[in-house]
User: Fold this.
Amino acid sequence: MINRKLLTAFLICAVVLCSCGKEEPLQEPEQNIVITEEEESERYEAVEIYMPDSLQPENAEGTDYAGDEFSGVVSDPQGKPAVYYNNFSIEGEEYFATLTRWTLTEANDWKQDELCENSLSEFLNQKYEQIGWKWFKLNQFRRGDDGSLYGIFTYCVKEVSKGEEGEESVDTEMETQKYSVLQIDEENDQIFEIPLVDFVHTQEVKFRLEEDFASGIDLTNYHIFEDGNVLLIYTESGGEYGKIVDGETGQTLTELGNIVNGRKRFAFGESEIIFFSSENKQFRVLGIPELTEDNTFGSQLSEEVSGKEWHYYTNPDTWELFLCNETGVYSAVSYLDSDDMVCLTQNTDLSELSQVTMGEENILNFMMGEDSGFYICLTSPSQEYGVEANKYRLLYYKKV
Assistant:
């Protein structure tokens, strides 16, 4: 009798223990599935994209090295990432020029097109015949809100400043740097010049040491609004200033004055300028042209995040604002009426940006893709065969 009771108790315990042992494995997969789905919906995977040959530092000794003038990836007319570069040659006294466009394909390689051969060559020859120059360059390509491609044409001319009357009077040879914005119709081979008559940078040729002096203003950034007018950002007296110029004549329409002290990067909205204020530890949204403060946002960011250098991308169709630094990519969709910022990469491995954290690389610019992914362009100094050059990397973070 006692043995039967013991046997019954033993069997009951065995059944209970077996049933308990089976419950945990059934619950764990359900928990893992929920967590994995949540993480996967917010996770990006980094893919490094090989840059075009003309941006490789080993080609720095060649005449076709574009790295010294490269200012970042922009979108092509269809919104795909692209790299633009002006290529020119001289035969006798005649210029021949093309605009090279590398467009990133779905296979993550580059399709090369030569554009504006007639219009760009004609523009250079007519411009040189009118004023002549010591040197020129075309860079800082941007996609305007109106969908057109723009670039900054910079050229240097020599001038002579007459000395005062007298026996010791000496004429001074000067170099004056001037600017124009070029509107580039890359599909129809047309160029339109917007001369920036108020922008000059002058220095004396003879002396290059402490006797050097510079006058005028230094253009640092620009943006084209949908109506074609141009917002120019320039450095003067240690601060960032702005003015709006007419998109046809280049004449100044509005002087914005001092926007912020110190050098800053800016984002541009439909009619706003946005930047991070080191004093307020927030992003400020200023309406143009009055520079009234329409909103501030980002107060929830830690100082470790907000103190890094920011880069911006604004979707010109939806006016959604995206922000990037070495800590990740953020969204401020309602930047006009909300303080909220959302980190898009909180579940993403950003080890590819570790060189930025260590100070060996810098973020040059970034842009969002059509498939919810984004591109980050990195730059660092390089030396190939004793030649100093810039090295570039393009990282594509695709949604998992």
